[in-house]
Batch of 2 targets.
Target 1
Amino acid sequence: MLTGSLVAIVTPMFEDGSLDFDRLRKLVDWHIAEGTQGIVAVGTTGESPTVDVDEHIEIIRVVIEQAAGRVPVIAGTGANSTREAIHLSRRAAQVGASYGLSVVPYYNKPTQEGLFQHYKAIAESCELPTLLYNVPGRTITDLANDTVLRLAELPGIVGLKDATGNMERAADLARRAPKDFLLYSGDDASTLPFLLLGGHGVISVTANVAPRRMQAMCTAALAGRVAEARELNDTLQGLHKHLFVEANPIPVKWALEEMGRIGSGIRLPLTRLSGGAQTVVRQAMQMAGV
């Protein structure tokens, strides 16, 4: 069972917005050396809305090639069109992804039955194991726990990334979901209680900047070493909060640029982190010992 800290890795870019695969490969090696348990390529933090389909698949392929089996690679495969989500899932499977992470369809506001049929179609059309991804703050549509549990009964639907930050929902899922159904937090700030309630790990933005400490916190929490986990998490609270001072991934890409790990590239309509926010993020980095 894949547990611990899984990084929602950024997509490095040059100043003109072209993809920087050399820096991407170096990030993969760094995360593995720092103890990150898995890498999520081309999620929200990887700027999935701004890359085209061919770029999307090439980013996944490069991450898989560089990881070389050392850690699992989870490919962002979601779309608001079921056909496109199936296409991305099939392409990700072809290049060797371990899982697909499929976000709830955004903008078109499907019903719960529509969501069930969407994910059922993906599972039936591709052998790639699928992780559901519920982030209603971005998609508007909310994947209800009862729908998650219906989907958990289908072959090929193996887990959920829950970015609601709602601990009542997390406790309900941990109690009712099949024991082998993977439950990941998608909200760094509430990851510690999520793990203590029975979650298996986190798909993390914070781990981009502080991978070793994020993994150590998850390891301590999963082992029941609560005091140690709380102490580690306290140092990360600034990053949990302020890496969202502007829309993700604007702050995290700036932080990694400050660390000398990527260049300044980001694609419109996203823009470089504003001056006042830079001070806030820098203080959070110092608090985390980065």
Target 2
Amino acid sequence: MSEIGGEEKRGWFGRLKAGLSRSAGQLGSSIGALFTKRKLDQDALDELEETLIQADLGITTAGKIVAAIAKDRFEKDITAEEIRAALAESVADLLRPVEQPLAFDAALPGPQVILVVGVNGVGKTTTIGKIASRLRDEGKSVMLAAGDTFRAAAVEQLKIWGERTGAPVLSRETGADAAGLAYDALAEARAKQIDVLLVDTAGRLHNKADLMAELAKIVRVMKKLDPAAPHNVLLVLDATTGQNALNQVATFREICAVTGLVVTKLDGTARGGVLVAIADKFGLPVHFVGVGEQAADLQPFAAEAFARALAGLEQPPAA
């Protein structure tokens, strides 16, 4: 089994750090104001915890991080730089268990089916295109299924990515049955011996039971052709939604057995810390993070790099 992803491209940490600059700036300015020639006493810890909560790390996760920072430093003099380093270390420790590349199993009898889900506007279609681009660069054959049959714009966007990546796109008329399209796409991908089938879906409002039931139907229908399909269910989350992303994970995981996460739009928010809260609460693999519109702006998740960028520190030392 190989990994979909591989080495980080040169310069990725710089883009990641730039993308997280708003999140890091908010944290850094607060930490700088708190720790100017100060002991790490209980008042300081309480203020630090509040700062982390405001940065969308969540109450429970913030408490864990503060406890870890205080363990060997309580009542000792500490600088803002030392706090940032300790923060990065604690965050990295929480994130390492979810740093798992998306794996590709060459031994599968048919295509590896990756179902991409999420609410409206999180960037599912763009994420599919970027993953397809990575896969094609690695020499894998890819097919795209335009399962968002209610939005003509989504179909057109996927077709554009198909042209860019040389991947065929299966689509139907507006309003067509998405489950039927997914079934047809899997049948065609099997017939053509495609390596990976990426299935787009409409933006599902996480509090709409009927729409979520339709998503569950897509899964059931594909299993008629391949009981193991979909092999991956990727939930795309928009970092700008902050703590609401936690609700989305809980809901989608119940409906369609989410296997991994992609976190997008980290470059447009000061709420990048929500990724830490999600990882701590759910423990789901985080396969990719996105900080821009270009294909190269979606990269495999790296715990230490993310933690250091969030804390406003420089690139982690080479192993």
